[in-house]
Amino acid sequence: MRTYTCEICGVSFTAEYRANRPARRFCGHQCSGTARRKHIHPSKYKLVWAPHHPLTTHKAQQLTEHRAILWEKIGPGPHTCHRCGAFVTWVIGGTGTAIGELIVDHINRNKRDNAPNNLAPSCRACNGLNHDTYRNAIQDDEPFLVHAATGHRYRAVKSTCINCGKEFIGQRAKRSKPASKYCSRQCYFTRTQIKK
Fold this sequence. Notes:
With 196 residues, this protein is of the alpha+beta class. The protein has three domains: 1-37, no CATH class; 38-137; 141-195, no CATH class. The protein has four helices and eleven strands; from the N terminus they run ββαββαββββαβββα. It has helices spanning 29-37, 65-74, 124-129, 185-195, and strands at 2-5, 12-15, 47-49, 62-64, 79-80, 87-88, 103-106, 119-122, 144-146, 153-160, 167-171. Strands 9-10-11 form a three-stranded antiparallel β-sheet, with no helix packed on it. Strands 1-2 form a two-stranded antiparallel ribbon. It has a two-stranded antiparallel ribbon with strand order 3-4.
């Protein structure tokens, strides 16, 4: 007989030692079942069994833990994005793609840290700014362009128009797209008419 500690409830229990089998992890069937229902989603988010929660669909019966915790913290109803102040609302079975949908933002960027003070309501654009792909975030003092539909910031460079000589802020060069050379469409079309 050996003494083990249950991974779910933390109770110490004794069980028969079996040489060719893994160590006991749970004190009984109830804790074992709880562990099976609380598993990790492929996106690294913890899932919880919540068949009667307002945010679960009748088919799924599971919910990501961070959504359940933030729901308990702030409740239903429209809320404001913690960064830009836009109004966002909960969506049942939400995927994070609808405009105006409330997305839970992990402030410290750690998907596994579901402490209530680390979770905040966010809009789609602001939540994207906090992801690991945006680690090299654009600062407010450097030049940037804002996408009209999504509100995302894109790096920009100060350039001089090759047609009129005016200084402007244009798109930075990418692999697939060269940097902007003209300050406006009018300068571009004027240049093409002169060439003809």
